[in-house]
């Protein structure tokens, strides 16, 4: 054991703060790491390929050979037995020869390697102490593991004083799931003929009685809860209170149990109409290249046009390709000499970037909302309306959903490499600043240069797909535009097939925009072939579909049926819903697969005390977990539209409970909906939290939601060891869990419109 030169890392300080909070109850349990001081030669640490272990000077050093992926070079120790629901403290001292953060995990020691807690050890070239507390969530034998690969030079990683001990549970208040009302409800409300369940946070082992109370404080129903045990996603024990049998519409209801009372909620058939409007109207002030009018968006949201070349912004009207070191590192010798007018479109999120893959799937989901309403919503569906949302085009004779999608479609078409140039017909992956800015920053105030990034196969197939989809939907209202869309779709299809390996790389993260990296385009190809087939009926696309691994593959997993990087699930739903031109056997197969996937979601929902359908890999909530839940709801909606089976409709309705407040944080994730909703999502222009002259995000803004990986400084400081559902903070700097994004609000529009229509 060495002590010289020991420092406390930033992380260490954050952890120290947690320790103060926990200290009163801390009682050290038995040491679970044998000889973690490396003094007796009895430790059980092992090394994988490419790593040599040396036990000298009272510490354990790993000499790591260059290369490989991060998981190709491992050291770890097995035989760790933890008890779910109990708390543990991991501590150690580490030295790395090149200063960098080293990941560490407590995970199951065998498939499926279920992660119980993930840490980042603030590695430094001087010995640095690390300590973190976490709650165990898995009873199988675990291992402590350090992935060390992925570096182009050999490196050395040394550890000492490795210790893992049980500690007393922190005071109940320290688990963020214990804050807020003990009874968690859908704060918006429940359908009279739908499931009505609430979740109670309680350690009680026996059922608890509860009452349903109306707005005049009269008890109108009562029942007892079903104890549902410890929920690892929330880190607490729960009960489920079911009051589905009560069907009288009204506002101001609440559930009561002893001293506890829930937030108020409605029972109503008209819960989602207003949300459809707000979630769709959210896109207008997200538009680039147009002045946002206060008389339309609301006074607080008026702002000058962004990126139209009015100083200090450089504008998107004539943008060249990325040059210099950034371009060389990312794209080798790729360059271009042309400049493009890529003004317009939507800003992706809280940043000023515009990314073709994310733009395509988002526009596609708005278009899908329209197509679904036309096919299944009945002639009166509001989603078909021309005065649906708050946009300048309202009342122009074209449905608002098409108007809004068109704003993005025109931008996407402009991202195509012009004829006569190398890679003609391919689509630039993205356009954004060459360096990151930070909030507050109105789009019109952004002084950074903008640049086009290399075209990618993924972006090109995605634009082929959404342009083909849009062309059939604009055929009546704007045949000229429909023709342009179809011609572009075909051109993109040809170009992407001619350039099948132009991946979108991971950037260094400092280049002013997100990566949207993707090197597997089999799903984008499948989506493009799907939309081209649905629009043209041309058998050549059917041949491509049949040859795709996604044709009959399992593409709708409960980890999130689809998202920007993996669009196969979306394509499958499109084929199932609109594939009447498929040969009958094929259509049957496709439809059966959607119904089968939706059926597998039902028992997952029944097993979740909070009613969400979401089974992320390793129980780790993903970046944008809320939208993954929405995509799963869309699978249920398709199953309902195909079968008319109300089991699917009710499952979709109940899934919304989680997003609207029946969750571990008692929080609605949609601004302006429910008793407590986010006000400070990460955005450069809805930056009220850091500049009081700017507004908060508008009503109907969906927050990304809990993210188990602490990516931003706020999460690193406040959310270490958080139970998955609680890894969220409503802070403008918490971009990893609290951003707004086009591909999150678009499925919200779809689901809200579906729930408003479906009976
Ligand atoms: O939503 C994206 C998520 O799936 C990725 O894991 C993450 C990191 O690459 O990026 C997210 O997208 C962000 C994008 O890169 C930049 N604009 C904001 C997006 C939402 O956070």
Automatic annotation (TrEMBL):
Gene Ontology MF term list: cellulase activity
EC number: 3.2.1.4
One biological process term in Gene Ontology: cellulose catabolic process
Domain (Cellulase Ig-like): residue spans on this chain: 179-260
Keywords, comma-separated and alphabetical: Carbohydrate metabolism, Cellulose degradation, Glycosidase, Hydrolase, Polysaccharide degradation
Ranges of residues in domain Glycoside hydrolase family: 272-751
Pfam family, one: CelD_N
Residue ranges of domain CBM-cenC in the record: 31-146
Enzyme active site: 682, 730, 739
Family recorded in the similarity comment: Belongs to the glycosyl hydrolase 9 (cellulase E) family.
Protein name (record): Endoglucanase
